Predict the 3D structure of the following.
Amino acid sequence: MEIVLLLIAGVVIYFLYNTLQEYLKNPIQQQQPYTKRVDIAPIDFENPYKEMARVDKVKSSEFGVLAAILGHLVWSDDKVCPLEKELLDEILTDMAAESKNPKLSKEELNKIVMEQKNNDTMLLIDDLCEDYVALTKGEYKKRLKVVEFLFALAYADGVLSDDERDCIVDIAAFFELANEDFNALYESFEQTYAQERTMSEKEARAIFDLQDSKDLNKQDLEQKYHELIKNAKQNIFDNKNINKTFRDTSLLRIKEIDEAYTLLMPLAQDNQDTQKIQKDSAKDTQDSQKDEKSAQDKSRSGWDF
C-alpha cells in the first residue's frame, strides 16, 4: 500500500514539475477586456495606411450617420425649397460645431447628405437607423428631437408629401419611438400647417425691418432671410433644449419668416428687373450720345484748312 502511495505521489510531483516548466517558458499574458468601439472603423493590418472606406467614414460617428439619415428625407421628394435649404444648412452647422471629430466638417456632412440622392452611393435607411440607435443608446429624447426636426424639414414647403411621411414613419419605427410620442408630433405639425392666414405686405416688411417696398433688394432680402432663420431656429443638440420642443420655441416664428420672404421675393425681383431696365436704358442713351458726338467730330474734321 505504501508503495502505491509513493508511486501516486511521484506521478503528481512529476506532473506539477512539468507544468511549472511550461509556465516559466510561456507565462500567461493578462488579457485585456474587449470593448466594441462603434465610432472607430476597423484597421486594415495588411495596409494600415489605406484610406478609410466611404461607408466607414459615414458610420464612424453619430453625426455622420445622422447626415445620411437627413439625406434620405431631403431627397425623398426630389426637391428642396428655400426654407428646407436654410434649415438643413443650420443643422449641419450645429452638427459640425458639436462634433468632436475635426475631420467631420460642415462641408463633409453636406457631402454625405448629397450622396443619398444617388442610388449608387445611398446607404440603407434601416442600417443607418440601427447604427444611430446604437450610438445614442440611453438618449431617447435626442432621437425624439431628431424626428421632430425631420417633420420641420419635411413641412418646410408647407406640405408633407406621401414620400416624406413614409420616410419619417420608417425612421421613427427604427428609432424605437413610442406611438404616443410620434403621434403627438405628427398631430402638432398637422394642426400648425392646417392653419392658413393671409399676411399683408406691411406685416412682411415689418418682419424684415423694411420701411418701403422700394427698398427691397433680392440679395439683401436673401441675406436677411438667412439671418432671421438662423436666429429663430433651435439647436436640437443643446442640452438646455432637450425638454423644449422645436415647435414651441422656433416653428411658428420660422413659418412666419418664410411666409414674409415668399411674399416679398417677387417684389424684390420686380425691383431688380426695373433697375436693370433703367440701367440698360441709361446705357443705351449714353451710347447713343457717344455715337452722335463721334459723328459730329468726324463731320467737323473736314472743315480744317
